[in-house]
Amino acid sequence: MKVEQIYTGCLAEAAYYIESEGEAVIIDPLRETKPYLEKLEKEGAKLKYIFETHFHADFVSGHVDLAKKTGATIVYGPNAETSFAKHQAKDGEELKVGKLT
């Protein structure tokens, strides 16, 4: 398992990269998707999920663009209303990434 913080100092924003067995999750990505795509390529991993912890008023997220480029599923919590395709996670639901649940 790999867990890495991808920090953008000028915005004081941290995204997270989690990987297990060649499957990855990115949590709260910034708008610019290049660093995430490069990380996935370097690690030889496939992006399975993009988790958005909440709607971000302080920066623009790259989740929709990243999902289009990778085929990953965007995941929001149970009360999120969006205009784009997503998986609406339920309380207590478990999502599998590699050997992680």
Describe the structure.
The protein has 101 residues and is of the alpha/beta class. It has one domain (2-88): Metallo-beta-lactamase, Chain A (4-Layer Sandwich). It has two helices and six strands, in the order βββαβαββ. It has helices at residues 34-43, 63-70; strands spanning 2-8, 13-20, 23-27, 46-51, 73-76, 87-88. A six-stranded mixed beta sheet has the order 1-2-3-4-5-6, covered by helices on one side. β3, α1 and β4 form a beta-alpha-beta unit. The protein is globular. It starts with a strand and ends in a 13-residue tail after the last strand. The mean pLDDT is 87.
Radius of gyration: 13 Å
CATH uppermost class: Alpha Beta
Number of helices: 2
First-residue to last-residue Cα separation:
12 Å
Query: Which geometry do the CA atoms define?
Result: globular
Overall pLDDT, averaged?
87
In CATH, the homologous superfamily goes by the name Ribonuclease Z/Hydroxyacylglutathione hydrolase-like
Strand order of the largest sheet: 1-2-3-4-5-6
Number of strands: 6
Q: What structural category do the secondary elements indicate?
A: alpha/beta
Instruction: Return the string of H and E elements.
Output: EEEHEHEE
Number of domains: 1
**Percent of residues in helical segments?**
10-25%
The low-pLDDT segments are none
Give the name of the CATH architecture.
4-Layer Sandwich
Q: In the CATH scheme, what's the topology name?
A: Metallo-beta-lactamase, Chain A
> What does the largest sheet look like?
6 strands, mixed
Beta percentage is 25-35%
